[in-house]
Every structure is written in C-alpha cells, then in structure tokens.
Amino acid sequence: MTYQQQYRHSIEQPEAFWREQAGQIAWYRQPDQILSQDEQGFFRWFPDGQLNTAYLALDWQIEQGRGDQPALIYDSPVTGTRRTDTYRELLDQVARFAGVLRRLGVGQGDAVIIYMPMIPQTIVAMLACARLGAIHSVVFGGFAPHELAVRIDDLQPKVILAASAGKERDRVIDYGTIINAALAEAVHAPSHCVMYQREVHRVDLQPGRDWDWDELAATAEPADCVPVLATDPLYVLYTSGTTGRPKGIVRDHGGHAVAMKFSMQNVYGVEPGEVFWAASDVGWVVGHSCIVYGPLIQGCTTVLYEGKPVRTPDAGAFWRVVAEHQVRSMFAAPTAIRAIKRDDPDGLRARDYDTGCLRYLFLAGERCDIATLQWAERVLGVPVIDHWWQTESGWPMISNMAGQELLPLRPGSATKPVCGYDIRILDREGRELPPNKEGAVVVRLPLPPGCLPNLWHNTERFRNAYLTEHPGYYSSGDGGYRDEDGYFYITGRMDDVINVAGHRLSTATMEEALASHPAVAECAVIGVEDALKGQVPVGFAVLKSNVTLDPEVLEAELIQRVRDQVGPVAALKHVILADRLPKTRSGKILRRTMRLMSEGKTWQLPSTIEDPSVLDELLSLLDSKGVSATNAT
Ligand code: COA
Ligand code: AMP
Prior knowledge:
InterPro entries: ACAS_N (IPR032387), AMP-bd_C (IPR025110), AMP-bd_C_sf (IPR045851), AMP-binding_CS (IPR020845), AMP-dep_synth/lig_dom (IPR000873), ANL_N_sf (IPR042099)
Shape: globular
Bound molecules: coenzyme A, adenosine monophosphate
Distance between the termini: 53 Å
CATH topology of the domain at 501-624: GMP Synthetase, Chain A, domain 3
CATH class of the domain at 501-624: Alpha Beta
Organism: Stieleria magnilauensis
EC number: 6.2.1.1
Largest sheet: 7 strands, mixed
Pfam families: ACAS_N, AMP-binding, AMP-binding_C
Domain AMP-binding enzyme C-terminal: 510-588
C-alpha cells in the first residue's frame, strides 16, 4: 500500500487500522475494544487489553530468538567507556532491579522519579518500573534542584532513583548535591533514594534514606512482569508549558507500545535486528521513544551516547558512532548538526568514517533551517528527514514515513501527516485555512494511540491547555501552514514556550526566577533567534526604585539566579535592566515587539501601545548590550 492509501485508511477507519497494528505486539489479553471514551469524555485506546511494556521490550524479544543480540550499546566518549548488553543481559539487570524496587515497597501504580544521566542503569531503571507496572518520571539532568523539587511535589513518588554524577565534556556534575537540595525543598520528598555510584564521582549516602544501587541489586530476587491494563500509565514526563509549572504528560502502556512498534517500522524504517540511534537524552521524549521503548519493542539494537556532537573529541563524533556501531537510521536535533557544521564546515570529518550503513537521518525538536538540512544531506549522502512531534504526542505527527514510502523531500517542510493524525490549519475563529495561509496547527480528535490521554492529576489543565481553544481538536501550540500538495510547514510556537538547543523551556519559569530576586519589580523573558541553538532566552528586568546595586553585579546575579533555579540548559546569558517595559494600554507586555527588536528584525509600532517612547529607550539598551536592533517601520 502507498502512503496515501495507508493514511486514508487510518483516518477513515481508525479502529480497523489500529486493531491491525495492535496485532503486531504481544498482549496478555488482546483488546476487544479498540477505541472508547472514558467517563470524562476523553478517548482511550484498547481499554480492555492487558500487556506489559517491559515484557515487550525484553522477554518477548528473547522469545523471538534475540537473546544474544545486542540490545544496548553504551558509547561514552566523556568517560572513555563502551559496553554492549545483549537482550538477555539487559533482562537480567532489569528483572533484578525490579526486585530491588519491589523490596522497597514499589508496586503497580506507584510513582518513581529517575534523576540520572545517559548511562545504561537509567534504562534499567525505566524498564524495571515498567516491569512492575510502576510509573516512572525521568527528570533531565540539566535541570536545577528547584525544578526537580517541583516535579517531585507534583508526582509524589515513592522512591527516587539517582546516579552520583553526570559527566559533561569538561566537568563532573555532582548529582548528590542537587538531589539533597531538591529533597530538602520538596514537600513530598520520598523516603528512599537508590543511588548508583559512578566511578567519576562517588557521593556520601545518607543513612536511612539512601541505598547503594549495586549492593541492593546483588542480593535482589528477579521480579516477573506484572500485567497491566492498556490504559494504565507507563510514565509521566514533565514538559514546559506557558506557566511556571511544568505539565505532567501521561503516557499509557497499550497505545504507546502499539505506536512505538508502528513508528519504528513505518516512520523510521528500521527492521528488527538493525541498529537505531537517537542522539538525544533520556530526559526528553525523544529519549523515551527513540532510545528506550521504540527500538527495544521493535527488536533493534539501541545506542546510548553520552557525549556531545562536537568536542567529544571533535566534530566527527557522530559519524564515528554511526560507522562503529553500523547505525541504520538515526535521530538528531538540528542544533547538533549546526554545531558540527560550525566546527567542520566542509564536512571533512565524515570522510574519516564509512557511514555507508546509514539509510536516513531524522531531525526534530526544533525548526530546522534549510541550509543545515542540505548540508547534512551533502555530507552524508542520505535523505535527511525533518519531522515534527512533541512530548504530548510521544511519536511523530508529521513526517516522511520513510519505512512505508519515501515521498519527495521538500526542504522546510516536515512532509505529510503520519498515519492516525488528521492535521488541520485553523484561524483564530476555528475556520480551516486554505493552502499557504498560516494558522494554528491542530489535530482532529481522536488523537491516535500513544498520545497523551491526560495530564498527571490535572484534568482541568489538560482540557484548558489542549482541547478548549478549538473544540473537537487538539491544539498543538505550534503555528504553520500546508501547501497545495498537502506538505506541512511548522513555523514555530504560538505561545511563550521556547526551544533552546532542542530543549523545550518555559519563559514563565525563567521569569519566576528573575522575579524572585529582591531587586526586581517587573520582568520579562523572551526567546530570540540564535544561529547555533535555534533560540536563546533574553531577560528584561525593571528594578525597584530603591535599588542601588551596581548594574553589572545585578545582571550577573540575575543570570546566576536563572542558572540556579531553572538549570544551566536555560542558557540565559543576557539580562537587560530597563526603566520600564513596553506595554499595551491594558498592561500586557509587548513581547512580540521586543522579540523582533532583539532579533534585529523589522517591527511595527503596535497600535495598542501605551507609550511609544519606551521603545526608543529599549532600542538603545539593546544596542548598547550588543543585542541587535533595528528601526521600526
Ligand atoms: N546535565 C547537566 N548539565 C547539562 C546537561 C545535563 N544533562 N546538558 C547540558 N548541560 C549544561 C551544559 O554543561 C552547559 O553548561 P555551561 O553553561 O556551564 O557550559 C549548559 O547546560 C548548556 O548546555 P548545551 O545546551 O549542551 O550547550 P553547549 O554550548 O554545551 O553545547 C550543543 C551546544 C549544540 C553542542 C548542544 O546544545 C547539543 O548537543 N545540543 C543538542 C541537544 C539535543 O540533542 N537535544 C535533543 C532534544 S530532542
Ligand atoms: P518537545 O515537546 O520538547 O519535543 O518539543 C516540541 C516542540 O518542538 C514542538 O511543539 C515544536 O515547537 C518544536 N518542534 C519539534 N519538531 C519540530 C520541527 N520538525 N520543526 C519545527 N519545530 C519543531
């Protein structure tokens, strides 16, 4: 069947389509019901099916003869370590660690926080939770203690699983200090912390609270898989929204497992037994779907890379991994490719390695500029596929479905909707827009399996954030348009969420950090274009009238405050101290105008502005700080 035929089938007969796909995985009880609505009116897939995701990722693969096949290749240039675990070896560790969790009282439906770096034990931890039917929530290592504490309080976990350290290119990050600070701040701190001691840095364990990972695992009884309902939660992953509080995206077992198998085969075009590599981090949705669950449920070998695209040790790092591990299909963030291009503009490093094994390079996580996409195509000589998805969807929403039929690529476009996603472009009034008109990118309900069924303990926010603006549709928060041939182009967020080096961050969270400084009366953070990171935040602060501190000292303090409260990934390097901020007559800060001014783009005087002279003040401030500015039209 062609892409077009498959796609139409998925939209016109979703239940028949997904029943067939559900048959591609193993169930303890096959679902009779494919799609239903729960008591709150939300759609749920496979409600009477029973399965276990860890079983699908490990035991089922071994039953199909993959016991001695590598499941996980850990490649860590930052520590100089390589290690391969077969499916059988990984299962052994997971079953034992599930035994550890069980001994600590973790059972089906209990929540567990995982604050760990890119090491095999993190994957063991995730799968061990899944094996017991416990709900994991991985928190990205680049977040500061406060962000970890916020997630702990929202999730209320029974246990926290941690490693003693993260390893960045040039420094060791002491996770012990971060965890102690987060647990001290959290109101709902769990009573147990299991710590994996890394050789790069060991931490002191707190008696009564902390347990040594290896010691517990050495004596643990392996635990069996616990059958769960398809609609039971597998994990919660926090992502940035428009407020300072992150949203806990819930993923269920059944829809997710079916979507993982389907997307690995049909989007990423990778067969069981082949090697798939996602150069991302397990703390993000791409890590969940494309490092852990997708590849393993598809019976692939997955690569866990603890390093950077450049300077670990050089711009050939990615191509070495591809050649050395015979990667067939890979994922990277456009930022990573831009970093490689910056250090190796002619792509000479790629010639040091035989990357002939590679079939496709997929890019997502942020908008990809055409020059970068074409550069990668030239250097690698394979189709480079820009595709679009979100933490909320858990798997690609718009893509070239390379595993099904590779459509002609159109640079700048993420190609066409993936099977199951009925994507529309709407104006503010909810009317569908004709080709080439930009509007809100929405998905007609029901969303396909694998997408978020709700937010963690916050149905009202789920409804308000995603389902209210355009009734009958899921609002993605992104803007975009489609052309006459049905190719979609994503133009960017329509809200205050920004994307810094492929990391989705909330400007509101950074504003909260700035506002917490005693000298700040008012502030705003906006995302401005950046040649490497796509976007970077720029802060603006108005000080209280009695503040006499040296402005330079204050700026440094404010930058440090964001680093301490949000984390280093926020990459906030500029805070501009202003006498006042441009506002509408109703008091709304004119963020769009501020962004355009900061990007040196043409901007128009907003008709609703309270006092136009404030813009002149802002322009000269931006100019003096080296943040580019231009005149209004
Ligand atoms: N734990 C702790 N700190 C982390 C971290 C982690 N997991 N990840 C990043 N950081 C820190 C970095 O050390 C850096 O700290 P610094 O300000 O002290 O130098 C800061 O956060 C910013 O990091 P990063 O965004 O990685 O910037 P960089 O300048 O070091 O590297 C790139 C630039 C482009 C190489 C890098 O951003 C990159 O590899 N991006 C791709 C990201 C990606 O794959 N995203 C996929 C999401 S789907
Ligand atoms: P995350 O939830 O962290 O995966 O971030 C999702 C957001 O990243 C989307 O809402 C988009 O704003 C952006 N994004 C992801 N993929 C693309 C893409 N291919 N093109 C443009 N923006 C993208």
